[in-house]
Amino acid sequence: MDILRIAGELINTTLVFSTALIFTALGGILSERSGVVNIGLEGLMVCGAFASAVAAYYAEAAGLTGAAPWLGLAAGLLFAMLVSVIHAAASITFKANQVVSGVVINFLSAGATVYLVKILFAGSGQTETLNTAFHKMAVPILSQIPLFGTALFYAYPTTYLALALAVVVWYVLFKTPFGLRLRAVGEHPGAADTLGVGVSPLRYAAVLLSGAFAGLGGATITLTTTSNFSHNTISGQGFIALAAMIFGKWHPFGALGAALFFGFAQALRNFVQLFEFARGIPMEFLYMLPYVLTILVLAGAVGRAYPPAALGDPYDPGKR
Amino acid sequence: MAKGSRMSADSALLPLAAVVLGLLVGALIMLAGGYDPLTAYAALIDKVVGDPYSIGETIREITPLILTGLSVAFAFRTGLFNIGGEGQFIMGMTGASIVGIKLSLPFWLHAPLAVIAGALLGGLWGGIAGYLKARRGVNEVITTIMLNWIALYLANYIVGSFLLQPGQQRSYLVRESASLSLAALSEMFGHARLHAGIFLAPLAAVVFYILLWKTRQGYELRAVGHSPSAAEYAGMNVNAGIIRAMFIGGVFAGLAGVVEILGVFQYQVIAAGSPGYGFDGVAVALLGGNHPLGVVLAAMLFGTLTYGSAGMSFGADVPPEIIRIIIGSVIFFVASPAIIRGVLRLGKRRGSGEVA
Known about the structure:
The complex is a heterodimer of chains A (about 325) and B (about 350).
Chain A: H1 2-33, H2 41-61, H3 68-93, H4 98-120, E1 137-138, H5 149-153, E2 154-155, H6 157-175, H7 177-187, H8 189-194, H9 199-226, H10 237-247, H11 252-271, H12 283-301
Antiparallel strand pairs in A: 1-2
Helix pairs in contact in A: 1-6, 1-9, 1-10, 1-11, 2-3, 2-4, 2-9, 2-10, 3-4, 3-9, 6-7, 7-9, 10-11, 10-12, 11-12
Chain B: H1 9-32, H2 37-49, H3 52-77, H4 85-102, H5 107-136, H6 140-163, H7 183-188, H8 197-213, H9 216-226, H10 228-233, H11 238-265, H12 277-287, H13 292-316, H14 322-335, H15 337-351
Helix pairs in contact in B: 1-14, 2-13, 3-8, 3-11, 3-12, 3-13, 4-5, 4-6, 4-11, 4-12, 5-6, 5-11, 8-9, 8-13, 12-13, 13-14
Protein name (chain B): Inner-membrane translocator
GO molecular function (chain B): transmembrane transporter activity
Keywords (chain B): Cell membrane, Membrane, Transmembrane, Transmembrane helix
């Protein structure tokens, strides 16, 4: 019975750690499927985490305790989307190197959010702790399933949202005209342009959506796990999401699986002391696990992953 | 970006304009935050040139930035994006720490050996990404990012398990014989932590130049960077070139870590996060047009801003994070020359009295 309880908790923790990665990796897919590299996911997550912590704090202060986490989520989404405009403008309109532009987003976000936090919270490097973050909620009936009911169906609302959005993104990308055009622009912008598909507007839409998704990812972390924001709230999750996207071969369900896998690798650290055989493993090696696994997987275990053909190329209609 | 070994007027003008615009953005943000940008920038300059100690410490700050900048620039020149300076830096620190602490040798052997160990370990770390790119087709951006994290935890493990000073969160001090400190020079600059690395870094820039533009190897590496398929057709070994370029880039970043350990701190801490010099190297390389001279100049600017930002926070109460915003804006403008050209054209038009 005990091993089942541990397995259940492990699954539940995996879902918690995966949620932010799912959101952000989906955002990455939207951007990169349109042909725009987005190394800036990390910075966009930082923006989402920052804005959600600030907005939820002020919402609490205004007495909106019930709505505070939801307002935080919306603020995180909007703020990161706003910041992603910089990446869109640089890489689409000004034809900057997209990787460099992403690095800029990471730089600016790291600086600007802590700068603003220090102004808003009287010199302190972190926001006040939120009283009302999201609570886990049980799905009626399903959570009553013996053994794994609580593991799978007693989770934060953001987790259900992330899982639902994976399906939505898949549907939009592969079953709607918008998705078809977005992918066309990422594979062969010249051809898409010839057929009357606006390359720049579609790429703008995709990058802004990636900002919104990464913002949700960042907000999820402050609103479920940390309850405040400081300079190390995100610390690399955006880069892991990026890896999850590639790992998942730029496909929403692939990325979903990869995000769950990374979440599992992270959750494992919390449980390792419970297993007799694993107690001798130094913590540092467990911390390394997700990164080592990524490299091993990319280096051949699942075969080559092919990115969208036009990924990284600014579109210049003058050059065919 | 400068195409050849010489820097054109344009390639000097763009970064300069970018810096000015970046400082302007910083000023606007300070104004919006209710601070006085003039007081802040004055405090920054005062912090940097105020006394010999500060000048010395600014030079100390610049040294690793030159090296990580060279690291990124070298990869760029061969068509690779090395975002792994951070991990190579950490491995450089670790190599220097192991040799500097564990071995007992005469000084003429100990210090050089520690430097070489760190450089090699940094090179190896870059080489892994190069190998995976060349042999497995794995994007070096992702592998170097992953290797940054692996290096962080691996170094923490090594320091924690083999080099730990009991009761501390850091290693034992490196032995005197491995230290790169220069007491006489340090004395001259009010005991600022000056070390032999300040000669090593410019030397590395010279080596960079000779390697890339004066040797056959360098010609091949540049050819690979320019057009891998053409280089392949010309009979060059592209894959070997990729591994070699990432290795050399790793050596530069590793050396940056080496001088921080052997020159500045004399010990390695168990770190909660990355030191940041590797990422700053990306900015330095971009601003410097991936040219060794440009990298040295860009590192001087970044080092000055970074060291001076403490003065801004002390003298004008501005959060020092503003400097990341300024640096980020500078890279943004460098990366988007279209914006700068637009601004410059606007200025010229106004200057010559033309009506738009």
